[in-house]
Amino acid sequence: MSVRRMDRAALRPQVMALPGGGAQLEQFRALTLFAESSDTVQAARKMIRTALEEWALGALVDDVALCVSELVGNVVHHAVPDECLVVPGAPRRVDITLTKWPKWLFLGVTDEDSSPPLLPPRETSFPELESDLSEASLLDSGRGLKIVEVLADSLWWSLEEAGGKTVFCRFDLVGSTGRR
Fold first, then answer.
1. How far apart (Å, rounded) are the C-alpha atoms in residues 16 and 10?
2. Does the record carry rRNA-binding as a key word (predicted)?
3. Distance of alpha carbon 80 from alpha carbon 37, whole angstroms
4. Are 101 and 15 in contact (CB under 8 A)?
5. Range list of β-strands (E), the chain
6. 82, 113, 146, 177: which has the fewest Cβ within 10 Å?
7. Which whole-number Å values give the CA distances from 100 to 28, 84, 174, in the listed order?
8. pTM of structure
9. Domain assignment of residue 114, yes or no
10. What is the CATH number of the domain that holds 171?
11. First-last CA distance in the chain
12. For residue 96, which of 7, 163, 172, 4 has the smallest C-alpha distance?
């Protein structure tokens, strides 16, 4: 498996001081994978499943695992590194972060391509025409970010200073049970 993990210090929970002297516990996982590996998407899903089960957020496993599959799959199939990051023969890096706060869970997938992700156009339904549509007219790709948009409570992206971009999604948590 072509996986590079961050050091243990980076995986330790961080504590953020809150006004009034309280503290919130942040839980964090990060994983670096390579787009050319055959098990990249599988390794990403495994990291998500393991972290969410350890954090008692098992109810979110299916949705978050599907989102990471779609986002990492987009990197594998579509990301072309920015010219400044291209090293001949170097694998394309995919960085995955998962951060849990008491009220939110954030998933980030970073690649080396600063091209914006493209959401499919809003669909307009014409029920009276559905029987006339041939199977050939249906899209066979381009639904991944739409799926993520539906499953996550928020979806956005940002450019990285050194090049590339990160696509983020947020899942709202109710209490700390992981139920939405």
1. 15
2. no
3. 16
4. no
5. 3-5, 14-17, 23-34, 93-100, 104-111, 154-159, 165-172
6. 177
7. 6, 32, 12
8. 0.76
9. yes
10. 3.30.565.10
11. 33
12. 4
Q: Where are the beta strands (DSSP E) in 9-118?
A: 14-17, 23-34, 93-100, 104-111
Q: What is the pLDDT of residues 47-93, one digit of tens each?
A: 999 999 999 999 999 999 999 999 999 999 999 888 766 777 788 99
Q: Give per-residue pLDDT as tens, 108-160.
A: 999 999 999 986 565 555 555 555 555 544 455 667 899 999 999 999 999 99
Which of 3-7, 78-82, 159-163 bottoms out in mean pLDDT, i.e. has the lowest?
3-7
* Number of structural domains found in the chain: 1
Please check whether residue 175 lies inside any domain of the structure. Answer: yes
Spatial separation of the C-alpha atoms in residues 25 and 17, rounded to whole Å = 9
